[in-house]
Write a structure and sequence with these properties.
heterotrimer; A: about 240 residues; 10 helices; B: about 325 residues; alpha/beta; 6-stranded mixed sheet; 4-stranded antiparallel sheet; 13 strands
């Protein structure tokens, strides 16, 4: 009655969360305000991406990243280091948590509806898929980066909480926020690249070239996460007694 | 007869463990339908320990020793049977009883990792309602007996394993419990630390008249401290009596040690008994007691010996045989 | 002796939390969510679309931030950790209900968090001049009372979820559900006065609005706060306190003390 109970609860939680987010958007648009000047159908695209990324986070990242922290605490990280397979991959690919599935389905539903309502052509849909993959990749790198800190910090849920909050702030197009926040969420926290950029790419609004940068940012973060992981492992092995 | 300090009456514990196959298919199947296994960890174990006794608790890994200790200290609920310490049910966690007992688990710890030992002691003193002045006095006394007075101000993570274990003991005994349950207290310690712990436990028991029930894989611990042993195997009580009697019952052997004048092959000794060591100048044999005289006579007749001695067999050997034999 | 126990527990847990300063920093960063909503709403307000002015939104969401920070709990994580690793065994051996340790853990952490909140408040006041307005001693005190009750309720909910670790392998999802409900119905998304009337009336009887909206409204002076909220909070706190005691009694029999 264990995972199953959690799964049922996750179904409820995901429905409430999706409904709540949609209600939030509704609250804005019903008063006449357009989030960042985007029509509501397109704003939903951003919301869908945010949910998608969140679902992947729950599905793949959280269970595996939690394990890093546990392995550090138990000292079993040593065994991972002895494995011939790349340690970062091994640590991150082990477990799948079905709890993320309802969120994934609902996110896909929102994306699908938003894409249809925004009148995406075949090219748009292709971009949606491609950019979605890019967003997931970016979040993976970010998540792994933060999870690596568990080698120093014992409790990882602070970090998971932090990343969840970031993803949460990504549910509105970044232009909806006042200017200083917009800048913060682009240059300090890569929130813009997580959801707004993919939506812009799908909608064919890649004008200034800014949305393309999401792939660069993703690759950059990935490279950094690998370097940081290696650094952390060196620190770990030299510090363990 | 005075009331027993520790009473176990037909104690049993059965665990229900979910079975899951590894891999993705296994996860899916496990998700859809659960399968359970029943593990009978302890089956109808009964014994009584009088106040002031020191009892060794022996058994191979997984025999049910730790589970029994956990039932006796109220950590887990028995599936059936009764556990009583000082006449009360430990599972009820009455403060009065908890102040009289302690459980020390080797290489597991209760001390707060990042803070100095003294901070953990402060918490313990507060929890057990020991006035701080009195607690400091006891700390000093115990620290002296254990030899850890200098490390108390250091964070626990900076201590060596031996120091940590001694600090753990100190923390566990701050409230001067009358009944001590010790689960592998010397596990992983170097020889000196082991000796120190043994000496300390002896001294503590003598000073405060405590009752001890301890498990250990190191026979030296048992031999040094316990007059009586209880043996558990596969959840059942196998033997309860004096240590010497254990040898009598299960392993009526003697160890014969020889120092040869000339090396001889191991095979030459096979017919006399079990060969533990041979091939050079030293030979060690396990010989059945009934055959002892005959064997010694033959050895003296057939080999040129520099030295010959007859001893009790090493306890590890005896215990090994006890478990190998299984149920009596 | 009880006072001595409490004082010692708190002092030691405070020291313990100081060791985890960096992590608490991350935790506070994660709590910045209200500021994002604030950003969106004040932008909407700036363009003249909604009920309140940008400054009022800023004031409200800052109060939401503080209210939320004071009510954050993690007892479910800690307790299920204790059950899984067997650490609970050590606490069972001592004559103190583990619930007090959990509580001391949280209260000790608040002590560490408070100075950081003051600093954030200072930064906020500098960035948004005129946003922070002194609510008056009465409103401040009432808000703190509401906030304390909100903390206790959240604590007992989290502890109850943590106690489910005796039965379930992973109960964090249940707490996620609680968190999601809090997120949408406590006034974190937007001031509840913006929600449809019917929804507001139903929500009044649930604990959610009072967890954040009650103290936030008191501190920001947005709307006169509903005193019934105190009663609702109090009753729900008692309910979950009882639930946690029941789960403790029932759950202990299932503890297998593995891992230790």
């Amino acid at each position: 009655m264990e995972y199953r109970a959690a799964f049922v609860v996750a179904m409820f939680a995901s429905v409430i969360e999706t409904a709540g987010k949609l209600f939030g958007v509704y609250l804005f648009y019903s008063s006449g305000f357009e989030l960042g000047g985007w029509p509501w159908q397109e704003a939903l695209l951003v919301l869908g991406f945010a949910q998608l990324v969140d679902a992947f986070f729950l599905l793949f990242f959280v269970p595996n990243l939690r394990r890093i922290s546990e392995m550090v605490q138990d000292g079993t990280l040593d065994f991972v280091l002895l494995k011939p397979v790349d340690s970062q991959f091994w640590v991150s690919a082990q477990k799948l948590d079905p709890i993320g599935l309802p969120y994934l389905l609902l996110g896909a539903a929102v994306l699908g509806y938003a894409g249809w309502a925004s009148g995406l052509g075949a090219g748009g849909w292709a971009w949606l898929a491609f950019a979605g993959a890019g967003a997931v990749f970016l979040v993976y790198a970010l998540a792994f980066l933060l999870a690596t800190t568990s080698i120093w910090f014992v409790k990882i849920f602070n970090v998971v909480h932090f990343l969840s909050s970031m993803i949460w702030s990504a549910q509105y197009p970044v232009q909806a926020y006042a200017r200083p926040f917009r800048l913060f969420l682009t240059f300090v926290l890569p929130v813009y690249f997580m959801t707004t950029a993919p939506a812009e790419l799908a909608l064919g609004r890649a004008g200034g070239g800014a949305p393309w940068a999401m792939f660069l940012v993703g690759l950059g973060l990935f490279a950094f996460s690998r370097a940081f992981w290696r650094f952390a492992l060196r620190f770990y092995t030299s510090a363990s007694s | 007869m005075a009331a027993p300090a520790v009473l176990a009456e037909q104690l049993s514990k059965t665990f229900r463990v979910a079975e899951k196959e590894p891999g993705f298919a296994g996860t899916l199947r496990h998700f859809v339908r659960r399968r359970y296994r029943r593990i009978e960890a302890v089956r109808g174990v009964s014994f009584e320990i009088a106040p002031g006794e020191v009892v060794g608790f022996l058994g191979p890994n997984g025999a049910g020793k730790t589970t029994t200790l956990k039932m006796l200290t109220g950590l887990i609920q028995p599936s059936s049977g009764r556990a009583r310490v000082l006449g009360r049910d430990p599972y009820r966690r009455e403060a009065g009883l908890l102040r009289e007992l302690t459980l020390v688990m080797g290489n597991k710890q209760q001390l707060i990792w990042d803070l100095p030992v003294l901070d953990s002691l402060r918490v313990n003193a507060a929890v057990y309602e020991i006035p701080w002045a009195e607690a400091q006095h006891r700390t000093a006394e115990l620290a002296e007996m254990l030899g850890v007075a200098e490390v108390l101000r250091q964070p626990v993570r900076k201590l060596s394993l031996g120091e940590r274990m001694k600090a753990e003991l100190l923390a566990s005994l701050l409230h001067r419990p009358r009944v001590l349950f010790l689960d592998e207290p010397t596990l992983g310690l170097d020889v000196n630390a082991q000796l120190a712990v043994r000496r300390f436990l002896k001294a503590y028991r003598e000073r405060y008249g405590a009752t001890l029930l301890l498990t250990s894989h190191y026979m030296a611990d048992i031999e040094a401290l316990a007059e009586r042993v209880i043996v558990i195997h596969e959840g059942r009580l196998l033997y309860d009596g004096p240590l010497g009697g254990l040898v009598e019952r299960f392993a009526p052997f003697k160890e014969v040690r020889l120092m040869l004048a000339r090396p001889a092959a191991a095979a030459a000794f096979a017919r006399f008994g079990e060969v533990e060591e041979a091939g050079g100048l030293r030979v060690r044999l396990l010989v059945e007691k009934d055959r002892l005289t005959g064997v010694v006579a033959e050895l003296l007749a057939n080999f040129e010996l520099r030295d010959l001695s007859v001893d009790e067999p090493p306890l590890e050997e005896v215990i090994g045989r006890v478990f190998a034999k299984g149920a009596v | 002796m009880l006072l001595a126990k409490a004082r010692t527990l708190l002092a030691v847990h405070f020291a313990y939390m100081m060791e985890y300063r960096a992590e608490i920093f991350f935790w506070i960063l994660g709590g910045l969510v209200p500021f994002f909503f604030m950003a969106a709403w004040s932008e909407a307000a700036r363009q003249g679309y909604t009920l309140y002015s940008p400054l009022e939104y800023a004031r409200y969401f800052f109060a939401v931030f503080v209210a939320r920070q004071l009510a954050i709990v993690w007892a479910n994580w800690t307790f299920s950790d204790w059950v899984r690793t067997g650490k609970l065994s050590f606490y069972l051996l001592q004559p103190l209900d583990p619930m007090w340790r959990l509580l001391a853990d949280h209260v000790g952490e608040r002590g560490v968090r408070l100075p950081v909140l003051v600093v954030i408040g200072g930064v906020f006041a500098a960035l948004f001049p005129g946003a922070l307005v002194w609510p008056g001693w009465g409103a401040l005190a009432l808000g703190l009372a509401a906030s304390t009750l909100a903390f206790l309720l959240s604590f007992f909910v989290a502890y109850s979820v943590g106690l489910l670790a005796f039965w379930l392998e992973d109960a964090t999802e249940i707490f996620e559900l609680w968190y999601v409900l809090v997120l949408f119905f406590s006034g974190m998304l937007a001031p509840l006065s913006l929600y449809p009337e019917a929804v507001q009336r139903v929500l009044l009887w649930t604990p959610f609005p009072h967890l954040v909206y009650l103290p936030a409204a008191l501190w920001s002076g947005l709307e006169p706060a509903d005193a019934r909220g105190f009663a609702v909070l109090f009753v729900w706190t008692l309910v979950f306190f009882a639930v946690s005691r029941l789960l403790w009694r029932l759950g202990r029999g299932r503890y297998s003390a593995m891992g230790a």
